[in-house]
Amino acid sequence: MPKMKTNRAAAKRFKRTANGGFKSANAYTSHRFHGKTKKQRRQLSKLGMMDSTNVKRYTKMLSTAK
């Protein structure tokens, strides 16, 4: 059976954490900042954690990625 390929689109968007989770950039950060509070803008600039319900799916997509 051939090796599984890493999903390259997912590999560029998500990074694995030491405890097995995934971190990624937040949505809603490209434009229309005038409608957001300073607190929202500050918190959106940080990396966010992926929801635990999606971790199994993305682990499979990134199976060969480190």
TrEMBL record:
A biological process term (GO) from this entry: translation
SUPFAM superfamilies assigned to the protein according to its UniProt record, in alphabetical order: L35p-like (SSF143034)
Keywords: Ribonucleoprotein, Ribosomal protein
GO molecular function, one term: structural constituent of ribosome
Top-level division of the source organism's lineage: Bacteria
Region called Disordered, residue ranges: 1-44
Keyword Protein biosynthesis appears in the UniProt entry: no
One GO location term (cellular component): cytosolic large ribosomal subunit
Coiled-coil ranges (or none): none
Biased composition regions of type Basic residues, renumbered to the chain: 31-44
Keyword check for Nucleus: no
Family: Belongs to the bacterial ribosomal protein bL35 family.
NCBIfam families: rpmI_bact (TIGR00001)
PANTHER family cross-referenced by the UniProt entry: 54S RIBOSOMAL PROTEIN BL35M, LARGE RIBOSOMAL SUBUNIT PROTEIN BL35M
HAMAP family from the UniProt entry: Ribosomal_bL35
Entry protein name: Large ribosomal subunit protein bL35
Species annotation: Pediococcus argentinicus
